[in-house]
Prior knowledge:
Helices cover 30% and strands 19% of the residues.
Amino acid sequence: MEVLRAGLDGAMSPRVRRGVAEWADEHRQIVVGERKGRWSTDAAPYLRGPMQAWTDPRVRQITIVSATQMGKTESLYNCIFFTIDEDPQDMLFVYPTDEDARFNNRRRFLPTVEQTPRIKRWLSDAARDTAAGEIHFRRMTMRWVGSNSGSSLESFPYGRAAIDELDRCDEEVVARVRQRLKTFADSKLLVTSTPTMVGTGIDAQYNGTTSVDEAFAAEDEGREGARVHGTPPSDRRRFVVPCPHCGIFHLRAFSLVRWEGGRGAAAKVVRHGAWMECPGCKGRIEAGVNLWQLRRGLWAPVPADAAGSSNTVHMPTRLTWPGQESGVMGPDAEQDGVVGGEFTCDERLLRFGEHVGFALHGLCSSLVAGGNPYGYAAAEWIAGGCVPTRAWCNDTLGEPWVIKGEAADVKGLLARAGGYGMGEVPAEVLAITVGCDVQQDRIFAEVLGWGERGGVCWMIEAHEIPRTRGRNLVELDELARKTWKRADGKVMQANVMAVDSGKFTDEVYRFAMRYPVGARAGEGPRRVWAVKGELGQTWPMPWRESKVEARADRAASMIGEGLPLLIVNTSYWKEHILARLAGRVEGTAMDAMDDWRFPAGVPKAYLMQLTAEQLVRDRKGGRVVASWVLRPGRTANHFLDCRVYGCAAADREGVRQLVRVAEAAKATAAKRAAEASGGGAARGGGRESLMARARDRRR
C-alpha cells in the first residue's frame, strides 16, 4: 500500500520543471566534509554550469576536468539525485575499482540518501538493496561498479551513467560505458576527474586529441585534407571572473599570483597573504572578494581552433557599476547597478553541444580552508621547492602534466627506410617472427625477419585485422598459415608467433592450442606462444617461462591448463627497442640505425604507433624510477606491443644462434676440433641469448 501511495504521489503531484541547481538548493543535504548541512550552489557558483547541462536536451556527455576538492563529485551526486526524483531512469555509476565503489557507496552515497528525505522516500525498504552492488529505488535502479569489473560493465543497458575519477579508471572504460547507453536516444554520460597527463584520460575527453596516429593514417590512405581526431573534443568552456576594480573578465592563472617575500617566504604566511594581480588594470585582488568574483563569473567558450593548453576564450564585456571611476569596488557597489558581462560572440557558441566540457581551475575554488585559493597554491609551490611538480599541477591547479622523455624520431626512421618493399623478404633473412596484440574488435600483427645472430631485423609486414569477439581468433589463422618467398626463392614460414593473452585470455589459449609445435609450412608457425606482459621493475630478466594454471576466478578455468606461457618483461624490451630505433646500441661502432630496417613505403601511421611511448625518469624517494607513457598526440601503441612480443619470442627461440648453413658447418667442425683437442672453452660459443647475458650481468 505504501508503494502504491508513493507511486500515486509521484504521478499525480504537479511537476515543476527545475534545474539540478535549484533542486539541490531546496532538497540536498551534505553529510561529509567541513560544510555539512543544506547544499547551496552559491557557495560554489562555478558548479552551476555543469548542473545546468545535465537537464539540457541537446547534451549527451558532460566532461568535468577539475582540481581536487572543488565539489565536482558533489555536483555529480546532485545530478544523480535529481534523476532519481525528477527524471527516473536506470543509472550506472562507475568508480575506478570495485573497492572504491563499495567504500564510497557505504561511506558517502547511502548516508546522503538517508539524510535527504526527498530521495529517501523513493528507497525500497528491502535490506538487500543497500547491501548489494545496486540500489532498487521505486522507479529506477542505481548500480555502481568498478572500472576493473568487465562483466559488470557489459551486463545491462542504462539511460544514464556517471564515471568518477576517470584518470584512475581502466583505459577503455568510457567506450564500454557508451555501449551501455547506445539504445537510449536521450542518454546522458557525466565524466569527472582530476587530470594526470596531457592527451590522456580526462584531458583527452575535454580537449580531444588531434591524433597524430590517425592523421598519418589519413595521409597513408590519400586523405591529406581530412581532419582526424583520436578523441573528439568537447564543447570546451573555462570559468572567467571579473576584476573588482576595473570589471574586466579574465582567466585565473598561477602566473598572476603575488605574495610578499618571494621564494624565501614562509609557507604559512603566504597561505593567508597571497593575492591575485588583475592582468588588465594590474590591481591587487584580495581573497576576500573571491566569492563575489565567482558569483559574477561566467563559463566562457573556448574557440574551436584553440590548442588544448591555450588561454584563449571568448570574453564577455566588462562589468560597470556606479562609482567605479572614483574607486568604488564592485563588491561595495549597489549590486542592482552592476551591468555588463554579456558575450558578443556568435550565440551558437554559447549553447551547449552534444558533448560539453568544463575546466575547473584550482585557483577558482571557494572551498579551500582559510578562503584563499591563491595562498594555498603558492604555499604548496613553496613547500615543493619552488618547482612545479606533477602532483601540484594536477591536484592543486587542475592542469594536466606535460611530460618530456626519451623517444625515437619518426622522421629519422622514414629517412632510412628503403632497400626493399613492403611484404618483401630480403635474402639475408634467416627466420621470421610474428608479434600480435589482441584488442576488442581487431588484432594488430607485425611480421619481422631476422638476420645472422639477430644482428639485423627487417620489418616485413604490419596488419590490422578486424575480428569478432568469441570466435577464438580465427581471423588470425590466415596470417598464421602464410608463407613468404625470400628474394632468393626460398619459401619460408613463421618460426614463432607470439600472441598477447593479457585481455582475451581464453580465446588466445584456444588459438595457441590449435597449432602444435613443429607445424610444417602452410600449416602454421613452428611454434605459437601465448604471452603476457609484466613491468620488470623487480625482475631484470627479458622473459621467463610459466604454465597456465587453473583459476577459480575464471569461469572457463580449465582452458589451456598446462599450456606454456611466456611472461615478457615489457620495460626491458621497450628500452631495448628505443635504443635501436633511436640509434643507441651499446658496445658497437656501427651505424645503429641500420640494425633495424624498414621497407620503402612503410606506413607513417605504423611508425607513429611503434614510437608512441616515451621513457620518463622521475626521482621518487631518493631513487630514479623509469616509466613508459604515451607521447602527446598519440592514441595507440599497438605495434609497439607487437614489437615487444616479437622480440621476446625471437630471443626465447634462439635468434642469437642464427647462422647460415655454411657458417653452421664451419662452426660445427671447429667445435669438434676443439673437443678433440680438449678445448672445452669453445663449447656453447656464440649460443648465448639475451636471457643468458642478463643472468651474467645479474651475477
